[in-house]
């Protein structure tokens, strides 16, 4: 099976099936994707800006429980 065929087949899978595929890929790759990746300068700048904003306004965020519930609600939609 070619890579193009695999990619085309992935588009036909459900979210649950895609999660299984992702878990399988994660098991094969382990933490290599973390250790062998590098953030771009733009990504680093965006993270630095977000961190600076958080430090300046820590009260502006939401508690994790609220964020998690919001995500669960959106995933059900």
Let me know the average pLDDT: 90
Number of strands: 0
Q: Which spans of ≥5 residues are poorly predicted at pLDDT below 50?
A: none
Gyration radius (Cα, Å) is 18 Å
Instruction: Report the biggest beta sheet as strand number plus sense, adding barrel if it closes.
Output: none
Question: Strand portion, in percent?
Answer: under 5%
Q: Helical proportion? A: over 70%
| Computed structural class | mainly alpha
Please state the overall shape, judged from the principal axes of the Cα atoms: extended
Order of helices and strands: HHHHH
Number of domains: 1
Number of helices: 5
Termini gap = 34 Å
Structural description of this entry:
It is extended, with a radius of gyration of 18 Å. The two termini are 34 Å apart. The chain is mostly helical. The model has no long low-confidence stretch (mean pLDDT 90). The chain is built from five helices and no strands. The longest helix is centred in the middle third of the chain and has 16 residues, at 41-56.
What is the topology?
Elements: H1 3-10, H2 15-29, H3 32-35, H4 41-56, H5 64-76
Keywords:
single chain, 77 residues, mainly alpha, extended
Quick description:
Helices cover 73% and strands 0% of the residues.
